[in-house]
What does this fold into?
Amino acid sequence: MRFYFISTLLRCEFLPGCGFIHRKSNYRSLKQSHPSADRNCIPISEQIILQVDLKSGDLQLLEISSGSGQHAAYLAPLCPNIKFYPSEFDRRLFPSIKAYADDCNTNNILEPLYVDISANPKEWTKQYGFKSGTFDYMLNFNMLHISPWSCAIGLFRSAGYLLKPSGKLFTYGPYKVNGILEPESNVNFDQSLKNRNIEWGIRDIEDLKKLAEENNIELVKSVDMPVNNKFLTWMKRRE
Ligand SMILES: C[S@@+](CC[C@H](N)C(=O)[O-])C[C@H]1O[C@@H](n2cnc3c(N)ncnc32)[C@H](O)[C@@H]1O
It folds into this structure.
């Protein structure tokens, strides 16, 4: 019932194809619409809504590699009790993230932060005043396979440092399971990624679990999603 309600709410708030109803700003031209975010922001939001605390006040969420800013824009109005910190490595995406944030009626999306997730979190977090255990949630969608392995290392290191005990990191994308990549479309996608950049490629959940373990994090849930993707929930252990 809760799922149906949220689903309906999501679909009513936004125009089909992730075209947003522009309420306040004249930012239409700054808002980028990424085809992958267009396709998966609704199913991703549905999973997150089911797994976050929608009641407690003052919760904090850090999104790594926010891209166009569409995911935060979808989610933030549904979680008005959560403060969203979008971040990006590519500064050219900041105007788009900001434009979506400025149109968010619940005003809970902050200015985009520059974050190179492959860097040591103890260095970049200092400049934003983020102490160890600052965040209740972290998001990272569609990045692990389109970035070097150093980004996966940095993501789990950051989550280990920045999440509160029992805090959650949500990741989304295609994954190998125990060395097996299925179906053939994912095998072809993996090859096309490697052709673009030899350091890219679809990651194995087992390898990610090792990084998680090194950072006191465990995989607590895996949900099969449309088009052979998975939505993974990682949790920071209690000290
Ligand atoms: C396919 S896009 C996904 C964007 C968004 N999360 C989404 O799902 O629409 C991959 C993103 O990874 C980001 N990225 C690449 N290298 C990065 C790094 N070193 N640190 C943080 N983000 C990085 C890119 O800038 C890009 O926005």
About this structure: The chain has one domain: 2-15+27-236. The radius of gyration is 17 Å. The pocket of S-adenosylmethionine is lined by residues 34, 36-37, 64-67, 71, 88-90, 115-118, 141-143, 146-147, 151 (CB under 6 Å). The chain is about 35% helix and 20% strand.
